[in-house]
Amino acid sequence: MATSKQADMQQLAAVLADGIATLSLDLSQQQQALLLDYLALLLKWNTVYNLTAVRDPLQMVTHHLLDSLAAVPAFISASRVLDVGAGGGLPGIVLAIACPTMQVHMIDTVHKKTAFLTQVRSQLRLMNVTVHTGRVEQLDTADKFDVITSRAFADLSDFVSWSGHLLADAGRFIALKGVVPVDEIARLPAGWKVTEVVPLCVPGLDAERHLLMVGREAT
Ligand SMILES: C[S@@+](CC[C@H](N)C(=O)[O-])C[C@H]1O[C@@H](n2cnc3c(N)ncnc32)[C@H](O)[C@@H]1O
């Protein structure tokens, strides 16, 4: 007979699988198991590392896993991605699991959060993940990124001005936002423009979600 803990995990797995099907994503059983392993690590270490205000496991599936997974199709052509202000790994860890050939870098200023991300990388054997500790303004990498992303990080203009030096010439920003931030768009620094606004529908989440694509203005 299944224990209540096993039954809980089965319920979480079912909600995740349903959401993945609704999003029409092609994720193997192994990838889905990795997502649940990541969720288990988030739950286990949240009290120590203060990674997320969401504490209910079922809510974590919708508000974190499916919320990040809904953005995956926008990243399909990217090979080198930076997640700025990654916190507990959203969307970076989810992208790394969903797109194993993508190199995913994550940066956060808070050492205990990047210690958690390093632990996730090691326990889930996510060899496509690189973790940086520090302010993105001070990050310097040999290769630039074709996509720089963030979720719940900063005003769009700060996001772009603090990390623009890391974006490849033909690269783009993908900001995960709630309602379309009209004021933030108006404050974008000169030389940058919103190229696309993509509404997202997150299974089980009754809230607005949008992806904002930002690129360089042609000179
Ligand atoms: C609200 S959290 C969002 C975490 C995660 N992206 C999510 O959606 O759950 C914002 C994160 O940005 C980090 N942060 C703030 N300023 C930063 C900077 N200049 N460079 C890198 N990370 C920064 C904070 O430490 C924090 O973990």
Annotation, overall tally of beta strands: 7
Measure the end-to-end span. Answer: 67 Å
Main sheet specs: 7 strands, mixed
Bound molecules: S-adenosylmethionine
CATH architecture: 3-Layer(aba) Sandwich
Provide the CATH topology.
Rossmann fold
CATH level-1 class: Alpha Beta
| Helical amount | 25-40%
Quick one: CATH superfamily?
Vaccinia Virus protein VP39
Stretches where pLDDT is under 50 for at least 5 consecutive residues are: none
Question: What pattern of helices and strands is seen along the backbone?
Answer: HHHEHEHEEHEHEE
When the domains are counted, the total is: 1
Plain-language structure description:
The chain is of the alpha/beta class and 219 residues long. The protein has a single domain, classed as Rossmann fold (3-Layer(aba) Sandwich), CATH 3.40.50. The chain contains 7 helices and 7 strands. The protein has helices at 4-22, 29-49, 57-69, 92-98, 111-123, 156-163, 182-186; strands at 80-84, 103-108, 129-133, 145-151, 167-177, 192-200, 209-216. β1 (80-84), α4 (92-98) and β2 form a beta-alpha-beta unit. The structure holds S-adenosylmethionine (SAM). This is Ribosomal RNA small subunit methyltransferase G. Keywords: Cytoplasm, Methyltransferase, rRNA processing, S-adenosyl-L-methionine, Transferase. It catalyses: guanosine(527) in 16S rRNA + S-adenosyl-L-methionine = N(7)-methylguanosine(527) in 16S rRNA + S-adenosyl-L-homocysteine. It comes from Noviherbaspirillum humi.
